[in-house]
Structure formats: structure tokens, C-alpha cells
Amino acid sequence: KQWYQRRVRAVNAGLTRNGTIALEFYEKKKARWPFTAEFFTWEKWEVKVELVSATSTAEQQRRQEIIGSELAEKIFYVTQMINKSDYVPKTPDIPSDIGNVYHTKYQDIHPFLFRIKHCLTDAPQNQSVGTSVRKLLNYT
Fold it and tell me: pLDDT digit of tens for each residue in the chain (140 aa)?
């Protein structure tokens, strides 16, 4: 939480402009001795965002309403797509394997295993595919 607060302060200071929020659904694969369990992402949704500073409280409120509406629309779309049987992994036959597909820490519901990731970057994200490939080749 403190790391995130520092990054938000950097945004407010104009140091960070872009970011990504990702929602990943995953499945655990059983570990075979002596290895640890593997995680297989079966669906990933990303929202790319550009962070801007509002010049007034009214502007900030207007932007929050617009972004909230757009984000709710995207979340609704994701839930419609993810509920189709084409996307979801099969429910395990063995009760002890249920935790490999579903969160079991909740008593009344068992959502698919998921994680939310976020990344804030200092550079604009309007790169071409060629630029991205060159960067990848330079770093490998």
C-alpha cells in the first residue's frame, strides 16, 4: 500500500503518466515432487490508462464520473465474456482439487482464481510494434 501511495504522489508531481491495470484468471497445476505448483493464466484482461491531473475540483469530479462509467462498462463486458462456457476451465472431479480452479476462502461463493495487477510507467505507451520488438531484442 505504501508503494502505491508513493507512485500516486509521483503522478501528482507529474512524474508518471501511464499505467496498466490487469485482471488475470488462472488455474493451479499440481506440483510434482520436487517442484512447486505452477500457475496457468487462462484469461487476461488489461486496461491501459493515462493519468492526468485535474485543474479544478469540478473537472476532477467530471472525469471521475466519466472514468467510473467507462470502467463499469468494461467490467460488465468482461463478466459477460467470462461467463461463457468456452472460457472457463472444467470443474475438477476430485473435491480436493477444487482449490486449483476456485477461491475457497469464501464461505458462500467460490469465484475463479484471479489476481489484479497494476503497473505505472514513466514513459508514454504509444510505441509501435517495431519499437517494442527492438527494445525486446536490446534487452535480451
Answer: 566 566 666 655 655 578 888 888 899 887 777 778 888 888 888 888 777 777 788 888 888 888 888 888 888 887 787 777 676 788 888 888 888 888 888 888 878 888 988 887 765 445 554 555 454 444 43
Q: Which three cell numbers mark 61?
A: 469530479
**First vs last C-alpha separation in the chain:** 32
**Three state DSSP letters for 90-130:** CCCCCHHHHHHCECCCCCCCCCECEEEEEEEECCCCCCCHH
Residue type, 132: S
C-alpha cell at 21: 491495470
